[in-house]
Amino acid sequence: MVETSLEAQVARLAAIEDIKQLKATYAESCDDGYNPDGIAGLFVEDGVWDGGPEFGRYEGRAKIHAFFSQISDVIVLAAHLSINPIIEVDGDRATGRWRLLCPTTAVDDDGQPVARWILARYAETYEKREGRWMYRSLEVDVNFDAPHLDGWAGGGA
After folding, report:
1. Domain contains 126
2. Among candidates 135, 59, 64, which has minimal Cα distance to 95?
3. pTM, entire model
């Protein structure tokens, strides 16, 4: 086991907590109608958001903003539950792996709202810029996207 100073341990734990706050802010912005200003502002200027084959890859804050400006036409409700973080910090850079459980309502090809469950994995990289942790990259790997046929209790589809 490598011994580290108390100061180094506190700095590592503070970085992990700051990154958890970054992730919570990302989820909050997603759940706020995919707020494009809020989401894009969490990325470094040349950051990458990669939603895989289902959602596409967007390089640069402007392209990330443009994608999130239109996605709420397709996904009209979302509740991002980011769980099981594994965050590794190396100075002003870090990596993170998370799980996502996300009840959503999406518009189908016929324009009808359909309640859905999404389970995914996040693979992320972060950079600390001017004292603030930001996304360098965020990759979403959707494991399944399944309809919830009866809609959400109390709210229909």
Report:
1. yes
2. 135
3. 0.89
